[in-house]
């Protein structure tokens, strides 16, 4: 009788608690999201784009006057983009003004079949083992979808969960990771393949609207394939573990929605409009995103310090009658993360984030060098930045990496990855990492194009030869 009482009062509740705890631990483990491996795409050397060739492309673009010519050349030589980035084949064939649907599809397939094959071969995972496929290419929609083309090429399973994203802009790769993370909550021991790139071939703007011709200079060819899993047995093989991910969307604000949009100009030429409200929209989305992710990654002591400094500053503003109120309080994100993986949207984007987060040149180096070597490859650019850190042997076990990206809509997405093991693979940077960072990022053509500043708009003619 005493044994029965003991069993009812003590043993069974303890057993129930243990089983509940075990279940909760298993549920938590099933929600984990790991990156097993990733492969950044390096196009062939015959697609390499230097400033001289950029000048030739501008020269053969009709409808450009002196002001547009000066604007584009200045944008190119001051963009922070180097001499070894890549462009689609259509540019080298001189057909950028007359693209076909096949041009866009072939550009993507060249990337797909190179990077996916290398990634799966290296990881030892067969296409039939892939449970989830997410493809994001913002500016190319076709039927069947790009994800279906991959399924067909690699003969993937009929029950694969495939997603094809378009129109998500440069922040699309973190949206793809978020989709995978949510699928992982409901299914155990899965493999997910995320493909991120941008199709440039069908999206050349041939008009002269200054808000739209800038996009012709900013983007370069690239892409990345990532293999993710929630299988705990593969934890020791993984490279990164996702700690948190935050998405901020300001599409409800008209000025944010319209500052970065695909449209036609007054003559019916399609292109990508970058409006004057873009910096303000980006800053607003960035600040709101940081407000949400900061409490998830910053130590409590740093948050308390920030709150105290903020309160003191407010009190001084209230009683100082216009006097000095002290420095603007800033959360020190370095107390929560060791590395900053910033979207290479341009030199101004990198400088702006660096200023707002009070980052050092060491922190900004991976983004600056990626912009210089590979340019702005849209949603895939984050992974070239991450690859730079790995190639430089900066990523050590336990380190945390903050990723920040922006996209049309207007969106700001961010996440934090924890490094699971020491990483030092030279990856896509292997042929040039020893040359980075270079002594100078100054474009060698900065002086070469200086002649255009002395031209007269009334007599200007596009030259047959670039001086």
From TrEMBL:
Q: Which residues form the active site?
A: 170, 249, 339, 343, 372, 376
Give the protein family. Belongs to the thiolase-like superfamily. Chalcone/stilbene synthases family.
Which InterPro entries does the UniProt entry name for this protein? Answer: 3-ktacl-CoA_syn (IPR012392), ACP_syn_III_C (IPR013747), FAE1_typ3_polyketide_synth (IPR013601), Thiolase-like (IPR016039)
Enzyme class, top EC level, equals transferase
Tell me the route in metabolism or biology where this protein functions. Lipid metabolism; fatty acid biosynthesis
Q: Where is the signal peptide?
A: 1-27
* SUPFAM superfamilies, alphabetized: Thiolase-like
Listed PANTHER family = 3-KETOACYL-COA SYNTHASE (PTHR31561)
Q: In this protein, which residues make up the domain named Beta-ketoacyl-[acyl-carrier-protein] synthase III C-terminal?
A: 337-418
Q: What residues does the FAE domain cover?
A: 28-315
- Taxonomic classification: Eukaryota, Viridiplantae, Streptophyta, Embryophyta, Tracheophyta
Return the protein name: 3-ketoacyl-CoA synthase
Short name of one Pfam family: ACP_syn_III_C
């Amino acid at each position: 009788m005493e044994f029965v009482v003991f069993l009812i009062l003590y043993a069974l509740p303890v057993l129930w608690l243990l089983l509940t705890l075990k279940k909760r631990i298993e549920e938590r483990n099933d929600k984990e999201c790991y990156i097993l491996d990733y492969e950044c795409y390096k196009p062939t050397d015959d697609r390499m784009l230097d400033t001289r060739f950029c000048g030739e492309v501008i020269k053969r673009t009709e409808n450009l006057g002196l002001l547009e010519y000066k604007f584009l050349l200045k944008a190119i030589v001051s963009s922070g983009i180097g001499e070894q980035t890549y462009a689609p084949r259509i540019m080298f064939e001189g057909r950028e003004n007359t693209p076909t649907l096949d041009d866009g599809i072939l550009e993507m397939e060249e990337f797909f079949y190179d990077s996916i094959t290398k990634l799966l071969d290296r990881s030892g995972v067969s296409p039939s083992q892939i449970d989830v496929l997410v493809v994001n290419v913002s500016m190319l929609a076709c039927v069947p979808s790009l994800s279906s083309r991959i399924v067909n090429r690699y003969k993937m399973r009929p029950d694969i969960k495939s997603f094809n994203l378009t129109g998500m802009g440069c922040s699309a790769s973190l949206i793809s990771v978020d989709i995978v993370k949510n699928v992982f909550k409901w299914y155990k021991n899965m493999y997910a393949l995320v493909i991120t790139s941008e199709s440039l071939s069908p999206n050349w703007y041939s008009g002269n609207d200054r808000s739209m011709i800038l996009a012709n200079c900013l983007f370069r060819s690239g892409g990345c394939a990532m293999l993710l899993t929630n299988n705990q047995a593969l934890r020791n093989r993984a490279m990164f573990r996702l700690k948190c991910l935050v998405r901020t969307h300001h599409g409800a604000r008209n000025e944010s929605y319209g500052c970065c949009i695909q449209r036609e100009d007054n003559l019916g030429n399609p292109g990508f409009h970058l409006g004057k409200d873009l910096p303000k929209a980006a800053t607003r989305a960035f600040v709101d995103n940081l407000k949400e992710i900061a409490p998830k990654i910053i130590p409590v002591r740093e948050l308390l310090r920030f709150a105290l400094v903020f309160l003191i500053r407010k009190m001084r503003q209230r009683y100082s009658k216009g006097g000095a109120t002290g420095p603007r309080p800033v959360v020190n994100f370095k107390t929560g993360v060791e590395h900053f993986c910033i979207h290479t949207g341009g030199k101004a984007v990198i400088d702006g984030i660096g200023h707002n987060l009070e980052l050092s040149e060491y922190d900004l180096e991976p983004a600056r060098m990626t912009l210089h070597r590979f340019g702005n490859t849209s949603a895939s650019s984050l992974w070239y930045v991450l690859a730079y850190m790995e190639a430089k042997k900066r990523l050590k076990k336990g380190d945390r990496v903050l990723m920040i990206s922006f996209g049309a809509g207007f969106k700001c997405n961010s996440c934090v990855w924890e490094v699971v093991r020491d990483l030092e693979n030279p990856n896509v940077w292997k042929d040039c990492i020893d040359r980075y960072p270079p002594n100078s990022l100054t474009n060698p053509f900065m002086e070469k194009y200086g002649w255009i500043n002395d031209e007269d708009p009334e007599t200007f003619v596009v030259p047959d030869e670039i001086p």
